[in-house]
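We treat protein structure as text, and this decision shapes the records that our systems exchange. Because each token names a local backbone shape, the row as a whole describes the fold. An entry from our holdings is shown next, in its original layout:
>
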Amino acid sequence: MSTQHTLVSRWLSRFFLSTFLVATLLLVSCGDDPEPAHEEELITTLTVTLTPTGGAPITMTFKDLDGDGGGAPEYIYSSGGNAAVLSASTTYTATITLLNESENPAEDITEEIEEEADEHLFCFTPTGANIGIAYDDEDDNGLPVGLTTTWTCGDAGTGTVKIVLRHQPGTKTGACPGPGESDIEVTFNVSIQ
């Protein structure tokens, strides 16, 4: 075999090997894209419904229909005025509803929180008002969620209750505020009478 024939043979072998490697890389890179990370839903409305045993429910609603920025959010209290009026020495069952009212019809984000309970935690911080808050729901791992809670009011007084929804995929411990990011943070005024 001539030297020239050997050189051509080697060159062709390298060419085909290089072409094969490039084609393999292109096929691998054109495969299915990985699933995107959880995209946060827009939460425009958060409503807390407080129901005393045998009594009429009281609601506290936060609305920010244009999301962050833009117009100021609106706080609506069913008891009128600028605070939820609660009764002293009374226990309430509290439920939270979350909506995205920028869509028509409004999207119920509460369902997503229920489905992804192992990734979400509501944190409650009463300030000034004598209110104890206990979790009534939990995820599949036995950690609190906070869509349903019990609020126990003590003596008369005024203050606030801050509610923060934490998104904690893979890191939830049940401790507030814990790791993760806040999906929504709202502070309601309360008056215990």
Q: What stands out?
A: Residues 156 and 193 are 5 Å apart (CA to CA). The helical segments are 3-29, 109-115. Residues 1-33 form one domain.
